[in-house]
Amino acid sequence: MRAIWSGAIGFGLVNIPIKLYSASEESSIDLDMLDSKDFSNIKFKRVNEKTGKEVAYENIVKGYKMEDRYIVLEKEDFEAASPEKSKILSIKQFVNHDDIDPAYFETPYFLEPQKNSEEAYKLLLKSLVKTKMAGIGTFILREKEILCLVRPYENKILMVNRMRFPQELRSYEDLNIPAGKNPKEEELKMAESLIRQLATDFTPEKFKDTYHDDLMKIINQKAKGKAVKIDEPAEKQTAPSDLMAMLKASLEAGKKATG
């Protein structure tokens, strides 16, 4: 893996030099964009809108449009905006991980201690494991301020979970969510029984992205000249009058599955 950021974690007066690595990767199939006429690859170019000529990457700068002109920003300008956040992931508070709504979570990253910071790294890791807490902090990554959670992962390594700022979460107030009638007491009890019946410890190994494999089967079929058959799934919607019947059937099916 290649480090995408290097700096330090700061909590209190303690600084721990670290490197940041992406902890996830895409599992989608790598598909190329082609011209439907002759299947030639589609290439994208950075083009000057006035001259129509391609611009080399090293000649591209970033700018902010203010009224009728651009203010061009250099690398030093980004670093000058928040120099301390460009190099230090500063933990502002420690919280219970379970107190944070999952809607705030985004990308995970691994943290690796740099040379001579192993002891301080282990101290923070073991302290978070023992207290069952996580640190909330901010730093600058790729010219953007990141809100993040620093926590133990499998009690062996520190992980950073990138988080959304509150203003990045949309409001649902404009959605058409009718109040509706409250469920009947018997329906509610049966739904609770079904939930308890299906309740178990989370086992991530049980879940797999199967779409990738299914799509590869289609690709292999087409490569052999075979026709692709589409099985249209029937759209199902449980009517209010069928709720009790569906809940009972679900409970019975669950009982049979567990013997």
From TrEMBL:
Transmembrane segments: none annotated. Residues 52-180 form the Ku domain. Keywords: DNA damage, DNA recombination, DNA repair, DNA-binding. GO terms for biological process: DNA recombination; double-strand break repair via nonhomologous end joining. SUPFAM superfamilies: SPOC domain-like. It comes from the Bacteria. One of its GO terms (molecular function) is double-stranded DNA binding. PANTHER family: NON-HOMOLOGOUS END JOINING PROTEIN KU. With LigD forms a non-homologous end joining (NHEJ) DNA repair enzyme, which repairs dsDNA breaks with reduced fidelity. Binds linear dsDNA with 5'- and 3'- overhangs but not closed circular dsDNA nor ssDNA. Recruits and stimulates the ligase activity of LigD. Homodimer. Interacts with LigD. Belongs to the prokaryotic Ku family. This is Non-homologous end joining protein Ku.
